[in-house]
Amino acid sequence: MKRAGVQIVFRSTELGTMKRQEDLPTFHLHVHAIVQMTRKLPKAEWSYLLQRVRGWWRHHFKDSQEVHQAREVCKYVVKPPEIEALSGEELKALYEQTFRLHLVQCLGALKDQRKTFEENDTMPRKESERWVVVKNWNAGRGKPSTSGKPSRNSIVCTLAPAAYLTNIKEPAAIILNYSDKSMIQQDKLARARDAALLGHY
Predict the structure, then answer these.
(1) What is the pTM for the complete model shown?
(2) Has residue 4 got a pLDDT over 60?
(3) Is the N or C terminus of the chain more exposed, i.e. has fewer CB atoms within 10 Å?
(4) Bridge-partner residues for 106, per DSSP?
């Protein structure tokens, strides 16, 4: 592939249609990959490259088409209906088999590019018909703070009225570090409750 100027820069693993064999679930495991090419290969050279890759990998490998939307490449790892068809034990086994695996991964030049963006707090943005690099104002917002004590009773979000804990539909709030001994946000909770009843916050 290097000799042909072709490099895989992204791969997305997908657990395709689930079928049962001898009552055990099996998935159509396959990967979507993006390749970066330094030049356009003649048809004969491209066919030869695919043949060599198939021989080395010993798995089916085919070309698709030019990618126009990034979402075409990585839509999902597994469809929800396939997961719902598994029993609890089967779902646990699938989780353990895929735990800590890089199911979606940038490789090569794309991996290096993402690292550069992250280190410089920048990001790509499309303006008109071209891409430009701009400052990423959200960079670092997710980094945890190590100073001070964690705040108590911080409202993370409110939920629309539903039967969450009982048969009665009522609004709910998700509270970080809840403590009924130091409920200092009674007014905020009241506003959150009223807003949830109205459907917004």
Answers:
(1) 0.60
(2) yes
(3) N
(4) 10
CA distance linking residue 31 with residue 64, whole number of Å: 12
User: Are 57 and 83 within one domain?
Assistant: yes
Q: Which residue type, as a one-letter code, is found at position 37?
A: M
CA distances from 94 to 48, 77, 102, 105, 119 (A): 37, 12, 14, 19, 35
Are 160 and 172 found together in one domain?
yes
Q: Are 176 and 188 contacting, i.e. CB atoms less than 8 angstroms apart?
A: no
- Scan for tokens 């791969």, then name that residue: 11
Q: Select, from the ranges 74-78, 88-92, 173-177, the one with the highest average predicted confidence (pLDDT).
A: 88-92
The model's pLDDT over 60-84, given as tens digits with 9 standing for 90+, comes to 878 877 777 777 777 788 888 888 8
Long-range CB contacts (< 8 A, 24+ apart) of 116-120?
Answer: none
Least reliable range by pLDDT among 58-67, 162-171, 192-201: 192-201
Q: Which amino acid is at 53?
A: V
Helices (H), 38-107: 43-57, 80-84, 88-98
> What are the φ and ψ backbone dihedral angles of 161, each rounded to 5 degrees?
-55, 130
- Residue 77 corresponds to which tokens in the numbers above? 């790892």
User: Does residue 99 lie within any of the structural domains?
Assistant: yes
